[in-house]
Design goal:
about 140 residues; alpha/beta; Ribose 5-phosphate Isomerase B, Chain: A; 5-stranded parallel beta sheet; binds D-ribose
C-alpha cells in the first residue's frame, strides 16, 4: 500500500532522504510536498497528506516538520487519522502496537537523519496488537 509523505520547509531535507530510502526498498511513495526549503505552512501539507489517506489512495502517512508537533496536531484534526509524533524506538513501536497509528510524524530538528530512517523502517514493520487496544482505538473515533 502506498505511503504519502509530506513536510514543511523544516522537514524538506529529511523528507527527501526518507523518500529515497523508501523507493530504494521498493515502497510506493506519494510525495505531496513541500517542493523545496522555501518557507511554507505545515497545516497545508498535512491537509494534502490527510486527503491521500482518507481517499484510500494511501494507507500510511509520514509527516515531517521541525519538531513533528505541528504536523501531528494538524493531521489529528481529521477523524480518520491517528498521527503519532515519535522520537525514539519505544514511542515508534507503541504508536503501532497500541495506538494503530496510521501517520508517523517526525521532527527533523529533533532526530538526525539515520535515527529518522531507522524509526521509519521500524514503524512500517510493526503491527497493531489489537485485542484490548482495539477497544481503546475504537473510542478515539470522532464524528466525521
Ligand atoms: C517551522 O519553523 C516550524 O515551526 C515547523 O517546522 C514545526 O516545527 C511546527 O510545529
Amino acid at each position: 500500500m502506498s505511503i504519502v509523505i509530506a513536510a514543511d520547509h523544516g522537514g524538506f531535507e529529511l523528507k527527501e532522504a526518507i523518500k529515497r530510502r523508501l523507493l530504494e526498498v521498493g515502497r510506493a511513495v506519494v510525495d505531496v510536498g513541500c517542493p523545496s526549503e522555501a518557507a511554507v505552512d505545515y497545516p497545508d501539507y498535512a491537509a494534502l497528506a490527510v486527503a491521500e489517506i482518507v481517499s484510500g489512495r494511501c494507507r500510511w502517512g509520514i509527516l515531517i516538520c521541525g519538531t513533528g508537533i505541528g504536523m501531528s496536531i494538524a493531521a489529528n484534526r481529521h477523524a480518520d487519522i491517528r498521527a503519532a509524533n515519535c522520537h525514539n524506538e519505544y514511542t515508534t513501536i507503541m504508536s503501532r502496537e497500541h495506538n494503530d497509528a496510521n501517520v508517523l510524524c517526525l521532527g527533523a530538528r529533533v532526530l538526525d537523519r539515520d535515527e529518522a530512517l531507522s524509526l521509519v523502517s521500524l514503524w512500517l514493520a510493526t503491527d497493531f496488537t489489537g485485542g484490548r487496544h482495539q477497544r481503546r482505538v475504537d473510542k478515539l473515533t470522532l464524528p466525521h
